[in-house]
Design a protein that fits this description.
Blueprint lengths: L2 E7 L5 H8 L5 E4 L5 H12 L5 H22 L2 E5 L7 H12 L3 E5 L9 H6 L2 E3 L2 H13 L5
Parallel strand pairs: 1-2, 1-3, 3-4, 4-5
Length: 149
Amino acid sequence: MGLNVYLSGEIHTDWRERIISGAQGLDVTFSGPVTDHAASDDCGVAILGGEDKKFWHDRKGALVNSIRTRKGIEDADVVVVRFGTEYKQWNAAFDAGFAAALGKSMIILQPEQHDHALKEVNAAAQAVAREPEEVVEILRYVLTGSLPS
């Protein structure tokens, strides 16, 4: 059995790389959003033309990015959603809601300080992890039945 895992959430730390590296040897295929912040923000206007108002600039980018996000979450067996400490990740909360609405298994990756703010998101998840390595151990267990040594 293999897993398709979508990695959603903040783009400012190395959490994705830690999960992908730790999962080497497991039958896991990873996908996620475009993590180049400038490219993600500007894709709509770069492809479809400029906008005078920032609202429409952002909207074009969000709509173009949503094609990738929807496909990734719809195809995923597991959606990992990371909430970091530095920025508010409204898009991550939206991704978690979309995944929950589709009945996807979710692992939320967040620091303890967000427990109260994310209580509804956490209640929809199958696990809440604090570190990327815990996510890897969940994936390992799901795929192999092996507990950490």
